[in-house]
């Protein structure tokens, strides 16, 4: 039969990448990640799988990004991208997990053929696969494994080399929308996003705003690409580069970058920190961004994904009011979002808020429920989604609007739409949006911080014997397993004024994460330690007891 005919060819291709069987892999929060030494067969199989996915989607381009994002240099992994630039469909995540763990070549072949049958895949389509990778040392070797897999199906392959994850998402969407979204090239990406930023800048109100940015590139691809972006920005922003050493890859994400700054609530190392300067940190594949500054007493202030979400939601809401268009704007957050940010958005901005489990795929999906859905994880991963009909409505109304104020608001909305990479969180696009809103409002970074105050909070992590024994419910706000842990957390939380805490297994690292917030920083820290200790005790903690 037509698929079985291929099996001999496939088998010989698969032979080059046997599964050493040392680890059970899981397609987690955002793909598969692990120490890069053990990933060759996984990457090879993901190459096979994306090719099949493209055949299934009648030759639509699909993407494969080789990255472990915020993880240390020694890790690597993949993120798979569907045709509109969104994350891989969840039904295929199951295939990815099964394929990654298949013990031998025959199993891999049988699984691929099963997938083809289950989905009624017509073999006549030629797959098209877009590939990118971050700056990790292992990227090139793992690319060879991916190419071997992809080529087994005689795919059309485009290797974009070292690029950011959101760039690859953007390119995939551009190809599949026949250029409507832009062209699949770095030049088109920079031009689209940056030109609309420059247009909006001409309409803006400067006041306390400063265009100077101290940029923390996490010693990764974000730094590399920001150097190209600076040329397109033509001095509309003054970007001072730091942590841009991509040659020494052991420095990647090390004590710098968005994940470090957010998790440790302190400035990045590798740069001099001056009071009231505006610091921007991105992560290892530049899909996350956080802002920070210190005051004259060296007190640190973090403006994370929650802050970006509130800034953007307030601005977009105001633009729609000014434009006269009645549009339903909503915000999607996760359990990590600070309680006061949710309160501010609901009570002050009057924007509805939904809460979903961690993982951009969940936030993105939920954001589609609104005409304009804004989503941000507290860690700085997020974007804005505009429904096609709304996009059209804004453009049409702008072309006929006679009222000057309304017309201006519509023009500004168009700029914001065009500088947004709607496919996924994108540090560069998000930075342009934040800078636009700050400039429009005439705000310094401390003006932005003053909009509301965060509840003091703390993130912790505990390594346990098997994090797969953890199960959560209610958008990760309660822990269902191990049994008894939630009751313990409840009794601890009761002792703290304004206390809230939850635990969940990470989908990208071998740890259980703990979040705690309370009325004071001391209490948030104490609460986090108490809950972390409960996790450690109940789930066979590994290493030092939390303190
Ligand atoms: C990925 C996901 C994010 C998630 C983060 C941490 O980010 O895209 O949605 O918040 O992992 O996930 P976890 O807590 O499950 O480890 P990135 O930037 O590392 O790809």
Automatic annotation (TrEMBL):
<dbReference type="GO" id="GO:0000287">
    <property type="term" value="F:magnesium ion binding"/>
</dbReference>
<feature type="binding site">
    <location>
        <position position="285"/>
    </location>
    <ligand>
        <name>Mg(2+)</name>
    </ligand>
</feature>
<dbReference type="GO" id="GO:0004610">
    <property type="term" value="F:phosphoacetylglucosamine mutase activity"/>
</dbReference>
<dbReference type="InterPro" id="IPR016657">
    <property type="entry name" value="PAGM"/>
</dbReference>
<keyword id="KW-0119">Carbohydrate metabolism</keyword>
<dbReference type="Pfam" id="PF00408">
    <property type="entry name" value="PGM_PMM_IV"/>
</dbReference>
<keyword id="KW-0961">Cell wall biogenesis/degradation</keyword>
<comment type="pathway">
    <text>Nucleotide-sugar biosynthesis; UDP-N-acetyl-alpha-D-glucosamine biosynthesis; N-acetyl-alpha-D-glucosamine 1-phosphate from alpha-D-glucosamine 6-phosphate (route I): step 2/2.</text>
</comment>
<comment type="function">
    <text>Catalyzes the conversion of GlcNAc-6-P into GlcNAc-1-P during the synthesis of uridine diphosphate/UDP-GlcNAc, a sugar nucleotide critical to multiple glycosylation pathways including protein N- and O-glycosylation.</text>
</comment>
<dbReference type="Pfam" id="PF02878">
    <property type="entry name" value="PGM_PMM_I"/>
</dbReference>
<comment type="similarity">
    <text>Belongs to the phosphohexose mutase family.</text>
</comment>
<dbReference type="InterPro" id="IPR005843">
    <property type="entry name" value="A-D-PHexomutase_C"/>
</dbReference>
<feature type="domain" description="Alpha-D-phosphohexomutase alpha/beta/alpha">
    <location>
        <begin position="58"/>
        <end position="91"/>
    </location>
</feature>
<dbReference type="InterPro" id="IPR005844">
    <property type="entry name" value="A-D-PHexomutase_a/b/a-I"/>
</dbReference>
<keyword id="KW-0597">Phosphoprotein</keyword>
<dbReference type="InterPro" id="IPR049022">
    <property type="entry name" value="AMG1_III"/>
</dbReference>
<dbReference type="GO" id="GO:0006048">
    <property type="term" value="P:UDP-N-acetylglucosamine biosynthetic process"/>
</dbReference>
<keyword id="KW-0479">Metal-binding</keyword>
<protein>
    <recommendedName>
        <fullName>Phosphoacetylglucosamine mutase</fullName>
        <ecNumber>5.4.2.3</ecNumber>
    </recommendedName>
</protein>
<dbReference type="InterPro" id="IPR016055">
    <property type="entry name" value="A-D-PHexomutase_a/b/a-I/II/III"/>
</dbReference>
<feature type="domain" description="Alpha-D-phosphohexomutase C-terminal">
    <location>
        <begin position="492"/>
        <end position="533"/>
    </location>
</feature>
<feature type="binding site">
    <location>
        <begin position="377"/>
        <end position="379"/>
    </location>
    <ligand>
        <name>substrate</name>
    </ligand>
</feature>
<keyword id="KW-0413">Isomerase</keyword>
<dbReference type="Pfam" id="PF21405">
    <property type="entry name" value="AMG1_II"/>
</dbReference>
<keyword id="KW-0460">Magnesium</keyword>
<feature type="binding site">
    <location>
        <position position="283"/>
    </location>
    <ligand>
        <name>Mg(2+)</name>
    </ligand>
</feature>
<dbReference type="GO" id="GO:0005975">
    <property type="term" value="P:carbohydrate metabolic process"/>
</dbReference>
<feature type="domain" description="Alpha-D-phosphohexomutase alpha/beta/alpha">
    <location>
        <begin position="121"/>
        <end position="178"/>
    </location>
</feature>
<feature type="binding site">
    <location>
        <begin position="504"/>
        <end position="508"/>
    </location>
    <ligand>
        <name>substrate</name>
    </ligand>
</feature>
<comment type="function">
    <text>Catalyzes the conversion of GlcNAc-6-P into GlcNAc-1-P during the synthesis of uridine diphosphate/UDP-GlcNAc, which is a biosynthetic precursor of chitin and also supplies the amino sugars for N-linked oligosaccharides of glycoproteins.</text>
</comment>
<feature type="active site" description="Phosphoserine intermediate">
    <location>
        <position position="69"/>
    </location>
</feature>
<dbReference type="GO" id="GO:0071555">
    <property type="term" value="P:cell wall organization"/>
</dbReference>
<dbReference type="InterPro" id="IPR049023">
    <property type="entry name" value="AMG1_II"/>
</dbReference>
<dbReference type="InterPro" id="IPR016066">
    <property type="entry name" value="A-D-PHexomutase_CS"/>
</dbReference>
<dbReference type="Pfam" id="PF21404">
    <property type="entry name" value="AMG1_III"/>
</dbReference>
<feature type="domain" description="Phosphoacetylglucosamine mutase AMG1">
    <location>
        <begin position="304"/>
        <end position="443"/>
    </location>
</feature>
<feature type="domain" description="Phosphoacetylglucosamine mutase AMG1">
    <location>
        <begin position="186"/>
        <end position="290"/>
    </location>
</feature>
<feature type="binding site" description="via phosphate group">
    <location>
        <position position="69"/>
    </location>
    <ligand>
        <name>Mg(2+)</name>
    </ligand>
</feature>
<feature type="binding site">
    <location>
        <position position="287"/>
    </location>
    <ligand>
        <name>Mg(2+)</name>
    </ligand>
</feature>
<dbReference type="InterPro" id="IPR036900">
    <property type="entry name" value="A-D-PHexomutase_C_sf"/>
</dbReference>
<feature type="binding site">
    <location>
        <position position="513"/>
    </location>
    <ligand>
        <name>substrate</name>
    </ligand>
</feature>
